[in-house]
Amino acid sequence: MCEDPARYEAEVNQMFGSENAAYLRLRVSLRQLNKLAVALRTEKHGGVALIFALGSTALLGLAGGGIDYAHIASRRSQLQNAVDVGVLSGGNAMKLASSSIDAVKGVTEESIRTSASPSPDRPFTVTVEVASDKTSVSAHVQETMKLTFGAFVGIRAQTISVQAKASVVGKMRLCMLTLDPLSPGAFNLRKSAQVTANGCSLYSNSTNPIGMVGGDSSIARADTICSAGGYLGVRANFAPPPQTGCPVITDPLKGRANPQIGACANLPFPFNLLPLTKIQTIDQNLTLDPGTYCYGLQIKKNAVVTMKPGVYIFNNGPLIVKDKATLNGTNVGLYFAGDKAGLLFDKDTTVSLTAPTTGEMAGLLMAEQTTVSDPLDPALLANAIDLGVTIPPTPAPLGQSKPMRIYRIISNNARTMLGTIYLPAGRLVIDADKPVADQSAYTVVVAQQVNLYEGPNLYLNANYDATSVPVPKGVGPIGGKLLITK
C-alpha cells in the first residue's frame, strides 16, 4: 500500500484515465482515504494506524474490482465475437460437400485466433467439435486473465469461458468450382458477360489476390460467391460481393472412373472416305453411334447430327460444330482424351445436349483425361481444315498454373446443356452473345478455369428435381443456411 494516497491516486489516474467509470469510483474512495490519513497522522496510537491500513486495503480492493470487472467484460465480449466469427467460417466450409472435418476444424480455429489474438502472457485454449454428419460446428474458448486489483481481496485471476455453435439449416448448392490453385482470373468475366447461378454458389480455389475477376460491365449473381484468394472488380460486378480467404476445397469429382478408349469408330458412307488418321467430317444429316472418334470429329454446313444415347470419346482430336450445323443428343456423355482434344461450338450453330442417367458417366455431360501437356486451340484447327473459315483464336487467359485443353462455346443457340461439365485439366471459354444453358434443369461446372467474354449469360440452374439426370456425388444439393447459437 502506498504511504501517500494522493500520489497513489495520481498513479492510478495515469494508468486508467479519468473517464473510466470504475476509476471515478476509486478516486472518490482514495480521496476519503487521503482525508482519513491526514487526520490520523496526529494520532499517536499504532492500533488506529493498523486499523486504517487494513481497512484501506479492503476498500481499495473493492473499488478496484470495478476496473477489473470492466476489463473482464470487454475481453469476454471480444472472445465471444471471435468464437461467433469462427463457427460461421467453419460452417461455411462445412456446407461444401468436399470439405473434411479436419478442414472445418482448422478453418474455425484459425478464424478465432485471427479475430482475437492471444497475448503472450495469457494464451487461450480453443476446442472445436464438428458433427460426424457435418451438420454443426461448435467452439469453446477459455482464457485466464490476471486481475490488477483482485489481489487486495484475495482473487488474483479470473477464468473467461465462451462458446458458440453453428448448425446447418436448409440446403445450398455448389454449381461452379474453378480448380486452378494460383492463377489470376481463374474465374474471369469481361465486357458484358454474366453468370446467373440461381439458388447455388460460385467458388474459386485460386489463392491469387485476383483469383476472381469481374471487369467492364460484367456481373456474377449467386446465393454465395467465394474466393480462396481475392477478387478484382467493383461491387456491381458481383451480387453478393465475394467472400475472400475461403478454404481451398478438394476436387469433389476426383477419382471418377474414366471411360475405356476403344478402337477408332468408322463413319458410314459417304463420310468414311478420309483415312482414320485425319479428323472425321460430317456435312449432311446423320444419326451418330457412340464410340471412339480418333483425331476428332467436325460437323459443318447445315448438317443435323443426332447422337444416340451412350458415351462418345474424342481421342487426340476435338469436337467441332461450325457453320450452321446442329448437334442434338439425349443421354449422352462426351469424353475428351489426348493432347489435341477439346471442343468448339461456333457462332451460328445449334446445340442441345443432356447427360446420361445411368452408366459410368451418369450425370456427366462432359469429362476429360486429367493430364495434358501440349494442347491445341480447336479454332486454329477449324480454320486450317477449311480455307476461308476465320474463327477468331481463343482469347488468352490472364494466367495459368499448367497447360489446359480449350472448350469454347461461341454458339448463340446452346440453350440446353443439362448435366455436369467436369474439366479438371480444361478451360471453359464462353464468348457467345446469347444465353447459354438457360433451358437446362441444372448445369454444374467444375473446371480448371472458367472465362467468359463478350455478352453471354451462362445460366447455372439448380432445379435438380425437374430432371431424371442425376447430380454426381460431391456437387449439387449440400448443406445450406447457418443458424448460430451460444
Structural commentary:
This protein is α/β, with parallel strands linked by helices and 486 residues long. The protein has helices at residues 5-16, 21-40, 46-94, 101-115, 378-385; strands at 125-130, 136-146, 157-178, 187-189, 194-204, 212-214, 219-227, 231-232, 238-239, 243-244, 280-282, 286-288, 291-294, 297-299, 304-307, 310-315, 319-321, 326-329, 332-337, 343-345, 350-354, 364-368, 405-409, 416-430, 435-436, 443-452, 457-459, 476-485. It is elongated. The two termini are 42 Å apart. Helix content is 21%, strand content 34%.
Q: Name the average pLDDT.
A: 84
Unreliable parts: 15-30
| Count of DSSP strands | 28
Helicity, as a percent range = 10-25%
Radius of gyration: 33 Å
What about the largest sheet?
A: 28 strands, mixed
Strand content: 25-35%
| Helix count, DSSP H or I runs of 4 or more residues | 5
> Can you tell me the overall shape?
elongated
Secondary structure category: alpha/beta
What's the end-to-end separation, in Å? 42 Å
